[in-house]
Specification:
The protein has 114 residues and is an alpha+beta fold. It contains two helices and six strands. The protein is globular. The N and C termini lie far apart (66 Å). The C terminus is likely disordered.
Length: 114
């Protein structure tokens, strides 16, 4: 633990609670369903935004969201084995496609007639 406190420190020793978050959901017949995301290394994570405009800038204007406290979001994701929460991410990737992806042949592969 650091003995000194710096207001401009970008990486504080202890994180403050996030408070009320706008959490992305999918709309289903039974009601809203929490969207779960993955980190670049494949770890499942919950995502929340501190402001609605940040959510819109990252995920688009059509993304439905519900307001949840950080504690409530953690309580929802804990039974799923998700213990990571990312607040205000700025980069996202498109959803994984279900169509097959074919690897390109190496440059030294023999030419085949079609």
């Amino acid at each position: 633990m650091c003995l000194f406190s710096y207001a401009e420190d970008p990486d504080p020793d202890e994180q403050a609670p996030a408070g009320l978050l706008f959490v992305p959901v999918r709309t289903e017949a039974a009601g809203p369903v929490l969207r779960v995301f993955c980190t670049p290394l494949g770890e499942r994570t919950a995502v929340g935004f501190s402001r609605r405009d940040l959510l819109t800038a990252t995920l688009g204007a059509g993304q439905p969201a519900i307001p949840l406290a950080e504690a409530a979001l953690r309580a929802l994701t804990d039974p799923l084995g998700i213990d990571r929460l990312v607040v205000d991410p700025v980069l996202t990737a498109r959803a994984v496609s279900t169509r097959p992806v074919y690897a390109a042949e190496p440059a030294d592969a023999p030419v085949r007639a079609l």
